[in-house]
Design goal:
Chain lengths: ~350, ~350
């Protein structure tokens, strides 16, 4: 049963022409315009949505690489010639699915286009029930990155009060929350980021105990020793490569590393070598790779946990919002140069 | 209260002259002869033992390196100018400790010498209660390596029936047991070792489903794909470096790696780079470094588990026993060239 009017509108799309090697360029994403009928065919069980906010996330670089059975265990490669798939906040225009009706809001996987027809699978989409908080938060704090920080910190790292926590890419969509969760837990937390502005944010806005600009440090290990003279209990890993090498030799006995991302490696044809792995043995360290997809059953519990903190102003969130559909490609590519300050997204439409 | 005769005897010792870089040589271990009084001083709380079997273990190479705060979290560096410390099976000659009396047998940390005066600390020594099994087993199957295999496989790897298991250095003191534990658990298990003879042992004596000689493989990853077309659930890591790199890309989703040792790295001035760490993220793999010292509270439980299997012939153990005190240095150094077949130890005295 459909309830939309039978109108056909233009639908701008960001197409993925071909697989990418090295740093992606703007030419790797092409904007085209097509049309779409704003009514689903009779009998459809899909949902037709208007996309409001589209999310730029580091994992998307993995999807842009040549299909690889290794990385596709976490995220599938993009299909060429069609729009990029990403997370977005969308409004239902027409629905053949019993769980959604016209006007409902949801977040989940959509095409990078103005209108998408989506097929619901387990945890592919979540209905947005709470709208007293910014709707764009459902691409970040209240969406996949928020759940990632929650699952990675609480479930993977098993933090205890008083422990020392280091977060890399700390002002990003996930890192800024991990730092705030660590403070709520009574931990000492230091973050690294790639600019003075981000370091300032970490220390003032997000309440990190300290922070440093990794681009100003010749020796990451020496920097870590400055902030963690007694060593690190928990490392929330977003970066990989040289940073991981430096962290390993600064970990405490029985330390835990939650491997959430390795953004420094995604654009390399050959990943860097990490040399200090014997430390895993010496210090009896746990490295745990995780994906948020394994934790989505805890999403309602996460909302119950985090919404009161947001309403009381005890958790804050910084977004880097690009305006307009055409800004999508540069917003995404900026992630890999650290241009974003906070969670990167772009606005397709405000309602 | 002491109960030994006041006799002074010669005491041969294997002295550690200085810290070692690269592969240790025989000149890095010097045999000297001193004397010892076979009666403890009045009021001593120590135990004086005659050493019967002394154990050669890969971790000892770590102790021979320059003192390093990283590795000393697992094992302390040796002191120079005094005997090497290792694990041994010993007989009590005189005791000032209430838990031991003359004639008792124990295993634990002793000097590489004919007679040692030992001071008991928590889990430094264990009384040998079961002597219907070979006494030398307390340097291996029933001692530290056995407990290592037990804790590493059951506690760290959380194995399930039907899972696929890969063990490197599989014919060694620990590996041969991990393979047998894996078969008892109903797993499929493949081992790697460094000679035809060892591969034969793995397949015939220890019941591994398959085994390969890593020295005959140009491409470790291709070898692993041959034996694990569907991937590896559990990797029991004894080797590190290139082997770890190859294993990582052959792991299954949610695979577990128990990091027990990295013998290929101990003699390197700079450890090799491991390049495939992004796989930890993609496959959501756990790497867990562990030390047997964290599990010694489970030693009685381990004995209850393993002794019946030994008595019923369901677990077997291969030892490489060098004869005589003078054979100690070459026995130890042979480990780093893979000369040992099975658990390496040497006999100081049979009783």
């Amino acid at each position: 049963m459909t309830n939309a009017e039978a109108v056909t509108v233009t639908n701008k799309q960001i197409i993925f022409p071909d697989y990418v090697t090295g740093f992606p360029k703007e030419s790797d994403l092409k904007i085209t315009t097509t049309t779409i009928d704003l009514r689903l065919p009779e009998g459809s069980t899909s949902v037709l949505v208007k996309n409001l906010y589209l999310s730029c996330d580091p994992y998307m670089r993995i999807c842009m690489g040549k299909p690889d059975p290794l990385s596709s265990s976490l995220v599938p490669p993009y299909k060429t010639g069609v729009p990029i798939i990403g997370l977005g906040v969308s409004k239902v225009i027409d629905s053949g699915h019993p769980d959604y009706k016209k006007g409902d809001l949801l977040w989940g996987l959509v095409g990078w286009e103005e209108y998408s027809v989506i097929t619901l699978t387990t945890y592919s989409h979540f209905k947005i029930e709470h709208t007293d908080v910014p709707l764009s938060y459902y691409t970040g704090l209240l969406g996949m990155p928020g759940m990632t920080a929650y699952a990675g910190f609480y479930e993977v790292c098993s933090p205890k009060k008083g422990e020392t926590v280091f977060v890399s890419a700390a002002s990003g969509a996930v890192g800024q929350l991990v730092g705030q969760f660590a403070k709520l837990m009574g931990c000492y937390v230091v973050g690294s980021a790639g600019s003075k502005e981000k370091v300032y944010l970490l220390k003032t806005k997000f309440g990190f105990d300290d922070a440093f600009n990794y681009k100003e440090e010749k020796d990451f290990s020496a920097a870590l020793k400055r902030y963690f003279p007694e060593g690190i209990d928990i490392y929330f890993e977003n970066v990989g490569g040289k940073m991981l090498d430096a962290v390993l030799i600064n970990m405490k006995l029985h330390g835990r590393v939650a491997v959430c991302g390795m953004i420094s490696q995604y654009n390399l044809v050959d990943p860097e070598g990490v040399h200090n792995l014997p430390t895993i043995l010496y210090k009896r360290i746990q490295l745990q790779g995780f994906g948020v997809c394994d934790f989505y059953d805890k999403y309602p519990k996460f909302l119950d946990f985090v919404l009161p903190y947001i309403r009381e102003g005890k958790i804050t969130y910084v977004e880097d919002i690009a305006e307009g559909f055409e800004s999508g490609p540069s917003a995404l590519l900026g992630l890999f140069e650290g241009k974003n300050v906070g969670k990167q997204l772009f606005v397709v439409a405000r309602e």
